[in-house]
Amino acid sequence: MADLVLLTPRTPADTAVPEVAPSLGLLPHTVTARPMDVGPLATGVEPDLVVVDAVTDLVAARGTVRSLETVGLSCPVLVVVSVDGLSVIDERWPMDDLVLCTAGPAEISARVRLLLARPRPGAPGTQGAAEDGAEPETIRVADVVVDEASWSVRAGGVPLDLTFKEFELLRYLVQRPGRVVTRDILLQEVWGLDYYGGTRTVDVHIRRLRAKLGPERESLIGTIRGVGYRFSGPRGDES
Fold this sequence. Notes:
By secondary structure, the protein is an alpha/beta fold. Helix content is about 30%, strand content about 20%. Strand 6 and strand 7 (about 145) form a beta hairpin. About 30% of the residues are buried.
């Protein structure tokens, strides 16, 4: 019996399985429905398979599968979609397979079985991520340390409690110390091309990041009026 996680925007999430993919609940696997936040998956124990609900909200689903790719989970990703949603599925949806929400238990069971049988990247005997040059990096600017491997940030040696988007935003800025990044670029690179919100979202997250960095470090994120933001500070090696 495998551990499956369904990511869905429906609320409450724990009742979503019969509404999104009724046949999924008939499989002899444990299916846990969660909100579409990939942060807990990045920091916790990986399930055997992630199922993404593209029936309820296509835009949110696409953003979620792209975030899952960014996080670099080793487990496969299955997207559940309606017939109407098939027309928007293309190569920009990083996933391992898709299935219609109306599929019967036999079809979903077969797809899940095939996905679970695939060797995971990094597993013994497989081509791991370390071989393709994509190893996580630890970046230090001033006394702020971003550790991609543990998906954590420390400032002055103290861990910061960041949301997934706050981490992604800070990581993007810290990777480019001293460089001005426009709000539009931040919105595109952190939230994705399909995000419909405005640049005000960036400002809100920057304000939260400064608050979490604290008064002694909030000035590390400088505002370039009418343009965007810049993370300033000497870059060094984490030791």
